[in-house]
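#onboarding

Welcome to the new folks! Below is a worked example of what a typical request in this channel looks like: someone posts a single protein sequence, and someone else replies with the predicted structure as tokens. Don't worry about understanding the tokens yet, we'll cover that in week two.

Example request:
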Amino acid sequence: MRNPLWSRRNRIAGVAAAVVLAGGAAAGPVAGQQDMSQVEIETVQLEGDLFMLMGRGGNIGLSVGDDGAFLIDDQFAPLTGKILAAVAEVTDQPVRWVLNTHWHGDHTGGNENLGGAGAMIVAHRNVYRRMNPAEFADVVGRSDQAARAALPVVTFADGVTFHWNGRHIDVTHVGEAHTDGDVIVHFPRANVFHMGDTFFRGRYPFIDVDSGGGVDGVIAAANLVLERSSGGTRIIPGHGDLAAPEHLRAYRDMLETVRMRVASLVANGRTEDQVVAAAPTSDLDGVWGDNPERFVRAVYKSLSGT
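Example response:
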């Protein structure tokens, strides 16, 4: 006789695969232009029941146990089948919850697949607000209203705590950071944080000013986690390898340095193009240099209010 939990897991995977084959509408234009066939999902075990999944898009957190699988973010729609296969390697339980750290498609692209298969999607209320009305356009120009199954069914303002799989999972909204809907997820017993895109390990961040983001909020998010960290803390960044507090501290210091330099130029009346031409990150680009111009422009806009 087949294990009924295994059967249900396979049913969910089958539903997701069917949606992917039908076109993966939740992936957005960028995902649709990328070949996902060669993407592999890497599983990093943090504790016996806690994992980090890496593939294409934002890093995923995974808690497993008798209550069911709890996912933090879900990457792109065409990867749902592979993500569920990775989940199935460590648990026979279905995905019950998907928590979105913010609204961008490389973190929410699998929502429609998983929501349609029965998972409950939860996020800050600004995630719902930005995914739902047709008039909002994301960074790749999509302005279509998200499918109903992709939308959060539970939203919150300041934070929420899950009591799931024998753990307390604390979720805190961090204000105007990468966007206006970012959250930090904390597993206190495991001493693990998931920071979403408030933390890009080893590279300049993308700050989505058009979605309410700002450099001061990104710095505040880093400081929040550093204040709650210890020597054994492990941090899942939105992008990049698993990190420790020293990696986050270096990132925070870089942010503060660039903020100070750009603020000085803004105070002296420099325009956005003049600030970019002044190359305030030139001595940092060798370490952090993923699209420094985009980063400098975002810092300028968030400080100048333009």
